[in-house]
Amino acid sequence: MEIINYSEEHRIFRNSLRKYLEKEVIPHVEEWEEAGIVPRSAWKGMGEQGFLCMGVPEEYGGLGVDFLYSVIAIEEMVRTNHSGLAASLHSDIVVPYIVAFASEEQKRKYLPRCVSGDIITAIAMTEPNAGSDLAAMRTTAVACTDDADQFIINGQKTFISNGINCDLLILAAKDPAEKNPHTAVDLFLVGAGTKGFEKGKKIKKVGWHSQDTAELFFTDCRIPKANRIGDKGTGFLKLMLKLQQERLVCAIAAVASAELILEITIRYCKERTAFGRPISKFQHTQFELVEMATEVKLGRTFLDKLIMDHMEGRNIVVEVSMAKYWTTDMACRVADRGVQLFGGYGYCEEYPIARAWRDTRVMRIFAGTNEIMKSIAARFMGL
Which residue numbers are catalytic? Predict the structure, then answer.
């Protein structure tokens, strides 16, 4: 019995998205991987078809549909076996901050263009010397002494996905005069092209080659005070409130990745012959595939329960932290075993398992390392 009861509308949406990706995205993946970035036209195409920011209310140009549409979009994007068109980051991690916390003026200014793909978003939390420790960030936002309506931002962010393509950035910065590290943080909207805001070169990575990841620099960058999201000193709380969904999104992608890797590995093992028969007929291969499939199914069952809990508005911070670390660890285990079953071909770029293996590894690091996830769970367990 399935935990999630998808409606006919959900199934139609999945079918439409899958067909679109097969026609408009997958044929270009190799080109984008080589270029290290996805063209803006691909984002615009997704927006025109209604595949971005589906949860944005209709009054701001979105579909106003439930979170299951986002789940479907994440799963189908994973099946393209590339990471550059980071629709889930844009739609389900960054834009929800604007929906939940921005002023009415900010929502009307930005949301319709986020939905259409005319605005690509990013979120800047991580810093070179802070890593997962948000309270230790050094980027500052100080009230301007010669203009009461402006902030001056100085600092540096790193590992920012969509860093090159982004038109609009949600930036975490702190007031250096505030001693409490948790009430010192605020979130700000910073547009590309703002004087003092510069994008560094694309970071060369082991995987996620088509994902434009960059360092961002702020040097006496002036932004209007109206660009602060919400009241002063509430940024850290906003981050904590939204990190539950961010980490759930990571778990969804991890399980979908493991399912894809299992699928392509089983197909290969049925087709590849050795000693006169398909390698899927050897007992060792069968045991490997059964163990991989078991882990994937366990991950799917755990994940689907959390998706439903999240949609019901439950506080599942501990469970999502557990899921983020376990599902991403699991996806890496499945990917590694898949490469082994492919043999030497698993290490060749022409086979999809190679990219899947490379791209899966970083899941254990971003959105808070898996060690941080365990620390969060331990703290809430009273350990």
Answer: 246
